[in-house]
Sequence to fold (1997 residues):
Amino acid sequence: MKRLAFMALAPFCVLLLQGCAGWQSALDPKGPAAGELAWLIWFFTALCAVVWVLVMIALAAPLVMRSRPGDEPLLLNAGAERRKMRVVVSAVGLTAIILIGLTLLSFFANRTLAAIGSDAALTIRVTGHQWWWEVRYENATPSRILTTANEVHIPAGEPVRLLLTSTDVIHSFWIPSLAGKLDLIPGHMNVLDIKADKPGVYRGQCAEFCGAQHANMGTFIIAEPRSKFDAWLNDQLQPAGAPASGEAKAGADLFLKRPCVMCHRIGGTPAGGTVAPDLTHIASRKTLAAGTLTMSRGNLAAWIADPQGIKPGSHMPVADLNGDELNAIVAYLEGLK
Amino acid sequence: MKQRAAADLSGLPTFGHGPRSPTWWGTLGFMALEGTGFALAAGAYLYLALSWPAWPLSAPQPNHWPGTIVTILFVVSLVPNHILHRYAKQCSMVPVRIGLVVMSLLGIAPLVVRWFEFPALNIYWDTNAYGSMLWVLLGLHTTHLITDVGDTIVLTVLMFTRHGYSGRRFGDVGDNVFYWDFVVLTWIPIYLLIYWAPRLG
Amino acid sequence: MKGTLHPAPAGVDAAQGARALAIWNSFRTCIFSVMLLACGPFLSGASEPPSAAAIAPPATAAPPDDGQWTMPAKNYASTRFSELTEINEGNVKNLQVAFTFSTGVNKGQEAAPLVVGNIMYIVTPFPNIIYALDLSRPGAPMKWKYEPNPEPAAQGVACCDVVNRGAAFADGRIFFNTLDGHTIALDANTGKPIWNAHIGNINIGETITMAPLVVKGKVLVGNSGGEMGVRGWVKALDAGDGHVVWTAYGTGPDKDVLIGPDFKPHYDMDKGTDLGVTTWPPEAWKIGGGNMWGWISYDPDLNLIFHGTGNPGPWNPDLRPGDNKWTSGIFARDADTGAAKWFYQWSPHDLHDYDGINEQILLDMTWQGKPRKVLVRPERNGYLYILDRTTGEVLSATAYGPVNSSKGVDLKTGRLIANPDKRTGTGKVVRDICPTASGLKDWQPSAFSPKTGLLYIPHNNLCMDEEGVEVNYIAGTPYVGMNVRMIPGPGGNRGAFTAWDVAAAKPAWVLKENFPVWSGTVVTAGDVAFYGTMEGWFKAVSARTGDLLWQFKTSSGIIGQPITYRGPDGHQYVAILSGVGGWAGAIVSGDLDPRDATAALGFVNAMKDLKNATTAGGTLYVFRLP
Amino acid sequence: MSSADVTGDRHIQEPDPAKGDLAPEREGPRDTGMDDASLHRWLERTWRTPSGIFGALSSVDHKVIARRYLITAFVFLCLGGLNAVAMRIQLSGPQRGLIGPDLYNQLFTMHGVTMMFLFAVPIVQATGIYLVPLMVGTRNIAFPRLNAFSYWIYVSGGAFAWVSFALNMAPDVGWFAYVPLSGPEFASGKRADVWAQMITYTEVSSLAVAVATIVTVFKQRAPGMSLDKIPLYVWAMLVTSFVVVFAMPAVMITSTFLILDRLVGTHIFNPAEGGDALLFQHLFWFFGHPEVYIIFLPATGMVSSIIPAFARRPTFGHLGLVLSLFAVGLLSFGLWVHHMFATGLPKLGASFFTASSMMIAIPNGVQIFCWLATLWDGRPVIRTPLLFVFGFFFIFVIGGLTGVMLASVPLDLQVHDTYFVVAHFHYVLIGGSVFPLLGAAYFWFPKISGRMMSERLGRWHFWLAFIGFNAAFFPMHLVGLWGMPRRVYTYPAELGWGNINLFISAGALLFFLSFVLFTFNLVHGALKGTSAGNNPWDAGTLEWATSSPPPSYNFARIPVVTHIEPLWAEREALPVATGLRVDARELLISTVAEAYPDIREKSATPSIWPLLAALAVGGTFLYSIFTPWAIVWGAAPIAITLIGWFWPKGDPEDQE
Amino acid sequence: MRQALAMLLPLTLALVACQREERDTRPQSALGSGEQPTPVTTLEPGGQRPSPTDNKAASFEANAFHMSEGKRLFSWFNCSGCHANGGGGMGPALMDEKWLYGSSIESIHATIRDGRPNGMPSFGQKIPDDQMWELAAYVRALGGNAPSSAAPQRNDDMMVHPSENRLPDAATLGKSP
Fold:
């Protein structure tokens, strides 16, 4: 039987080794907050494992050592009971000490986390929508306020302050490899401070059930060196480039004539929707539809042609375009770097 | 398994009043859970009131007079209620019948005034959360009031039938008295919350 | 009241040789006026406080009254003051109807009739028909009419009823605007069109409702559409052929706003390069409002025109962080080139749709011992501003009604001190903001009497709840992003007619009205002030005390601008268009449903009972003494 | 201590001589001195459930009702399990298109709602309904008609939810249905209304059972069963019932607020008009956390019953265990906020809740250590029930320890709402409740059915369940830490969660199969099992003192209790009390603390009215999701059925 | 026979409920395009025309999800800018009994699609057909013309009027907004 139990456990060990990697893992910290938390997770896990093993030993011991299966119920021996009482009381005492220790540990970890963003220079407002993220880079000069979607670029090595809120239902912003999650609640404004130690791409996704497409509400934090970040910000602040080809030109016209214009904004054109992701520089993003598809011409076409097949229930409607129209619009959007 | 007689119960009475009777405990249990409901509803009110600096959300103050009249009626009703309780414990039929009729009327009276309390709130339930909470609190208590008055009336009718001459029925009267105390007591904090809390802010 | 008993037009018997008489009459009045003006200081010195005597419009902007009414504001100084005295405090109670005329359009009649010579011109709301009535003949028959046939679709993009605020007369021509964005010049005598300039595009939500102003051979016109994401502008059209001489935008880069080296704003907050761009999120200025749909004044001495700019769009302030230049402010521009001279922003980063387009009355007065050329502005945000019109410096800003959306104006920086408790934003209802989006006073113009030194302000007394909501910019559709529901203000009276003592900076008296006073006003040298109510009363009150002297119930609520003129018979007449509508009266003219608190951008909630008080109409009433 | 001490005549109160206007008390035959055969005939005639469908529907026998409860709850368990299997098939690989989000969201909501409200709470209460009256030595539960009513309410509530599911109307907002997602704006149609009303009225049933249980324990204990002699299982049910009484109103208030917001336009959760979405979470978790203990505490009672029977000695630290039950019950109300750490509450307050959440581990530790001490000192006989208790230790301790991790604010921010949490609460709920329940099923099945279940199949069942469970849920800890949020109907392939999820799904299937085996064992045992006898395990508590299955009257004569394990203490002859009437449903009411005999009270006779009342209430609730006027229209039938219920019928039971 | 009837009853119930709660977001070509001509007047020389109803209208008219989506789009597409929350403003009120261009869902759909001369823009190219049906269904619900079991409810926003499924009762509420 014990062998059976071991066999059951063996695959876990394999999986354990396989794990830890990945760009959306709490065990693969890439920032001070997640690092602190990963340490905490490992410490708690180790301690809990020790406690568990002790309990299991205590459970197994009488079974291994049992001499005679009982028959008549035993009557109690007051002296033996008292001795045992001492053991049990000390076990409880030990439990209490461990728990107090863990409480203090998490209290101090909390304070460490709170200290991360106290000097954040950059403030980004993230607003949750069903089912995408609106990202707004605050700036003292209003004309340098950038609004984009689904991807958060940050300068690496600097603390960044995120202001989290929502306009519809509750969402939760979670980039496991950088920090713990925090909810976006309508009527409330939450503050999350994050910092990425090194440049990189960190995936995250909505962690509070938010309706039909909760599963496909991904986001990315892209940490870059400061200079690259500044350049990126400047690029993004520019209005969309003019369509390059004739097809793209036709696509731009179609964009304004067909349903796209009702919800999306493209800077530099009359399209000014705010209830859907800003598309001014859509082609510069890594993914489409909040992390659902990687950015490519084919996926762009697939997404526009059948959003309800790819992300059923999302607010992107099927726009009833013919093949040429679809190609034209894709050609246009593809050029919006 | 073999048995041996160890006690004789034949001399025990067949009914009891107050905490001796299981019904009393059942009533107490329901009071506990309903009281929890009241407490949570009141807690929700206070939670919202403390969340919003502009509470009561620029609504006009409620007219407290119907509520105050109800409160007075409630407090007054406690006197005959407890007289009724004494007679119920003595199992004397005539005073109990009179007492129940009185208590039915004293139950209906606040219910009638309660009808005027709702408009006196000076706000609708769908105007804003303050209005919602007022209606919820008042509605919650009114539900209890209606059910208890209905209960009292049924019991009154019952006591005028041949089924009344039973120790258990007198026990029921006692429990009814007990529940009325609950209805009155829960009203006091709700009354203060509805009519006087908005006047504080 | 008495007027209703004598409906027959009088004075017909004197019709022979009326023309000659009229000329003589005007001559006589001129002489009298000059005498009066000359004696004014001495006459009034005895009865009025000395400071009042010092306040008067500049003579060049407010020339002596000729008994005509050639522009809605009466004169370039926008005083709406008539020197006629035939109707006065003593006899106004005898006023009776001289004639009436149905415009045939049952929408809000906000226009001021014009009287030039023997002809009265009235412009109706959409479809903007212009009628010329011959005053020299009994019953004032129609001389001609002109139907511009504007596009019906324009009705769908007009924010607050399909009103028109009047025409302007200059050089034998009548200039007026149509809802669908045309400015048209007609021959005043024949009604033949001379030119027709298409300057507004209804497909992006642009309409024109304002009355043009003709200054030095240029027709000044601005657009409406601050609720549709339309970028505001003022254009100067050549009065001769209608070509655009200059265009000054309300937002955007300096060159679009005609900000050049001459631009010398008084306050630091208005200094900088391309503030019309940098105080907006990227490109938001392109759809940011700042429209000019209200009143322009002109000072010939300084050769400056003064005009306000409308609210920034959308209303939801979360969508446009920054000061949102150059919205909700006032420009002084060179009358020839349009170049901006100075600017002052009434409501930086406007939170509550406080358009800055109200009338500005140009006055010369003594301020702290020094004579100053000032500009008086009862502003929508609730303050009565006195600005030095040469520099744009705020001399004083005093609330003339209940205001809690702000805590006053910092005279050092010139900035409005917003009340953080009343800051609106997405997803929360902010309650009891006073004044409302329609302002303590909306477009309805006030009048100033140099005789009394009082400014007669018809205004609202409303408060509101507001909640920002997300909104899409879709060209040609509304771009508001705000749920609003209005409620009566403190005291429960939704309107008031306030006489404001400009020198003392306090109200002389206040008349409470049940409904907002959405009509303009006129005051005469006979010390009578006229205004109308939304129930349909046309009222004459004493300009000194506010006592109600006379009132007449017209067929519909009044939101028009009263005028007074000397008729061909030499007698003084008072005219008003009756016909409820506008933003405040949209519930009646648009047949809106009062169950929806946010209907008509929230105004309906405060006007639920208006449907029981009046119905739609469109009738001209002209009164005179028997 | 002899039995005479506790029931001595000096404690029995004489009837009050002055009794006003009472009808003369009618006398009937008593059991004193009656021979066993005629006693059985008498009692059977008095207490039996009437025959026929009508009779069955009118039954007020706690065992009959408990059996129905158990079977119904088991059916719901299977339905909820099928939901889970469907979800696991969808999740077995990335981007699988078997089930779309609309159905998936209904599936996991129904899974949660069914398991929490239609399976876990009802089944522990059902076990209590069956066992508590037997364990305290009485003839029926207190308020038997209320008990019958509660069943009808429960079953109609469950049917309501599942019929809605069949009609594509099932709630799809998660079992805790946070606003605004479940609010009027974002949950269109009637799905969230179904959630709200179904919750409200299944909780009515739980509350009714809780009150009945409390009163049964307080007032109907056999003579001599003073507080220190109450079996631990009964203590657990008592504490559970108290937790129900104080926690369930919170969820009723929550769901009522929600339905008010949705149907009549109140603004309690509308932040724009002065409400607050977080209020919902506070109210819900004020119920939701105690809910876990409502499910867990009875299971500890079961463990405390099974362990001494197989360890062959009384439980170690009886008093400690009772006190820890109380401590857990009390503390469970102080840690609801640890479900809300990610909502951005003030840091200091959150730390307080960390401390209180950690603290509840101490009483739980006391329990574990006491049981271990019992086993350590006993001479364990390893049979299937005990195997499941071992499984309970193995699994629940992991669940408890991950619970400690979740109680830490910063740590929770990483694992909250991920599969780590899914793993945690399945370890707690399945390990802490289902495994003991399965053990209890094997343990008490002989009592209920009179037959034994197969020990061989039982062992197979255990290992299959044990391995299946751990294979399904242990990897979830990992995948949660790797960033997989809960309630996702699919996940992208590039995140590398595919293999582990396939493994999880395989484990889930295995776990499901173990229940197929269990069902077979149940049916097989009920039909073909060997006869059990009164006390197959030679256990010590009173339910084993009567026949298996027990007669309709439970005990021919009411036992007199002298010891905490009466059957072990009195091995040759059980002391009993005599003197009750046999022609009327008379049972003994005793005093609260010492359990002195106090009153011979009549228990209610069978009645169809509870069913009718439940139909009236159920109809009203159902109708109320369509119009608030339903409450007004429904009041009349409810009033009529309640009057019918309480109006005396002239039975001997009504007369006194 | 009776059994068959007993089977039929839940089946019909199921169908009715499914239709009310169905959440199809992909256009269903099987339902037709809804492109039929819808006259603005009821005057029809030569006898009354059968009322125009196709599958498409029926599948949207009483569907809770679609009406609720319609409500969302009503504000997203700025319908609320002109028609407020049904009370009107720049455009006419939609919650009253007065319909300038017909009150049927087909007429409302045609109004959205083709526009109307006095200011209603044509959204034919700008809004996918299904969303126009959703909007039309919601607009009908504004006037209390939808089954209350499917009508959308209030938004988590300013209370502008009682929720749509209570609108017919609004008159009895007196002062309630």
Chain A has nine helices and twelve strands. The CA atoms of residues 2 and 8 of chain A lie 10 Å apart. Residues 16-21 of chain A have pLDDT under 50 and may be disordered. Chain A touches chain C at residues 138, 141-147, 167, 186-187, 237, 239, 261-263, 265, 267-268, 270, 272-275 (CB under 8 Å).
